[in-house]
Amino acid sequence: MSATRVCSLSELEPDSARRVVVDGVPIAVVLDSAGEVHAIGDTCTHGDISLAEGFVEGDTIECWAHGSAFSLRSGRPLNLPAYEPVPVYAVQLDGDDVLIDPSVTKPAS
């Protein structure tokens, strides 16, 4: 599978997330305050809640329902009640286009 265009960089707002679905995989695309684009699994591992509806601060995203925060870099939960990580996907930028391949995940660090 190859990377799919999910949005343009200009469509993303700093410290916010946007939900996209690529090949049936829900993904939260996040532009952090430093201008870096991240792509993580959009479903909180504690409950069936969209992380894109949560809160972005620095390099974390917090689930609005129960407060679990996840690292945008590793997908690891930073606090309870979640204890399982979410997948992190490689992001490619091609000019203003944001591309993601949901079959390619970054190893948790």
Automatic annotation (TrEMBL):
Q: Is Iron-sulfur one of the keywords UniProt gives this record?
A: yes
State the InterPro entries in the record.
Rieske_2Fe-2S (IPR017941), Rieske_2Fe-2S_sf (IPR036922)
- Protein's name according to its UniProt entry: Non-heme iron oxygenase ferredoxin subunit
Pfam families recorded = Rieske (PF00355)
Q: Looking at the keywords, is Iron present?
A: yes
Database matches in SUPFAM superfamilies = ISP domain
Q: Which residues form the Rieske domain?
A: 4-100
| Keyword annotations of the record | 2Fe-2S, Iron, Iron-sulfur, Metal-binding
